[in-house]
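Worked problem 6 (solution included).
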Amino acid sequence: MSRTQLAIIGGGLVGASLALTLQAGAKARGWSIVLIEPFAPGDAYQPSYDARSSALSFGSRQIYERLGLWPRIVQRGEPIMQIHVSDRGRFGSARLTAVEEGVPALGYVVENAWLGQCLWRALDPEVVSWRCPAEVRRMEVLGDGYRLTLDDDSQLDCDLAVLADGGRSSLREQLGIAVRKVPYGQTALIANVTPSEAHRGQAFERFTDEGPMALLPLPENRCALVWTRPAAEAERLRELPDNQFLAELQEAFGYRLGAFRQVGARYCYPLALVAAEEQVRPHLVVLGNAAHSLHPIAGQGFNLSLRDAQALADRLLGEEAKPGDFAVLQRYLDGQRLDQQLTVGFSDRVTRLFSTAQPVLAAGRNLGLLGLDLLPPAKRWFARQAMGIGARPV
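Solution. The predicted structure is:
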């Protein structure tokens, strides 16, 4: 029977980021970290037109800068210099710019495969070991931690188990952790597209009565599209021939970037706000999408999870207790509660407000966009939320 101080179940972007934030302090304390992941990371980054991507906020850049990883990440990161927010069929709009906010960029769009490679290569094998490909089949509560039974029937005991295995976590269900799920009645269609004009680091948030749309800048003048529609409509769009899909996208988005020339593979994902009712127990933390899954249109989900990971690492390394001490874990959650409430609330309310066809609310959001451009304090608040620094003191 082997034992480790920390077992991170899920070696994706959130789990690997937590391991990276912990590893220097863990090495100093003599702790070991085991990452358990069903899908083996590739040995090398392979460029792909269809690569999925994440929008990293300015706050996330600051976290990776402290870890010394940012210079490598940004090699293939596209800066967001401006965000244009508009409401289709109405005159209200607002622009957020990096210049106005006094930052080098409002955020950065990075391909997940590249970010993963940067994280995995930075892990210290003297501290962080992999069990991969491997899955945890069962978790058994011990007096001083958890016993994990893997799919090869091997077992691993740990002081602290971190559940970072995604929004459909079967282990979360196995442990009896309830979730609050609020369906949006929308499906996100995800794809990469290429416009005829240079995007120049512009991101677009376009709201329609059928659901919001986001277009984010990527390297090689590609754009990452997130188009939320009713489920049947999203599936219809997914199955259209490329030229017909681009024509409908053009009609919905307009010609701010010229004509759309190319679209890659399209994927559909039903959308819901999902939040775990418990995020900490003695010797257990629920992290990432297993803790909270947000609507993708505001680009806040991964950034919130990264801040959670940083806060958890700071708390674990800042106390003398063992990693699984419940009082320590509860202090971590108490410290993150405001950030989580603000971020989840911001993402949810913006999504709902800008997805309604009710005339009174539609008129109100149009005036709200006008006010956002005219009222600097409101615009500053909105920008800080978008940049992932809204819960920090000004």
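Discussion: DSSP finds twelve helices and 20 strands in the chain.
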